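ok so I'm stuck.
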Amino acid sequence: MASVLAGDTWTRKGISLLWDSLELTSMTEIKDVVSIRSYLNYFQNGWPEDLPSAEGYSLVVSGLDMILDVMEPTVLTNWLENEFYSSLLSFQSTYEGQSSLVFWIPDAQKRLVQKTDGIYYWNCGGSYHGKQIPLSQCLWNGAAKDAKMITKNPNIHEIKDKSCIGIYHPRIS
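replied:
not stuck anymore, here's the structure
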């Protein structure tokens, strides 16, 4: 059974994948959501001093889902584990674990599946339809099994439940 997180801790700490549009608009204005390109630019050139979302506690990023759909799965897995993961560590270190990084992925609930190994797998689309990548393992490395479903109802048991609004990890290493 998957662990759940009820409440809004994810808006102030950790790394999350979010798909609920009402939760998105409750924590940030759309104009404050940054593109994946801007996020990667921050990683290369320095993180902003002030974060634009959740009263200064969060950076919300859109566009990761596009990358997940256009890259060949093996190349994508290697990129996520070797390059993208470094950006997550850098963000976490820069803000000393006291800010949240939220990836807005509107279709994630339809595209993610949690298998018996505790890992969340992304069902690839486009020309890679039918293939999967171990997304939570790529993003959270050895701590992937510690990810929690973000929920409005603590009694949910699977990611497909309508009360599940995202996936959260408190800290990676």
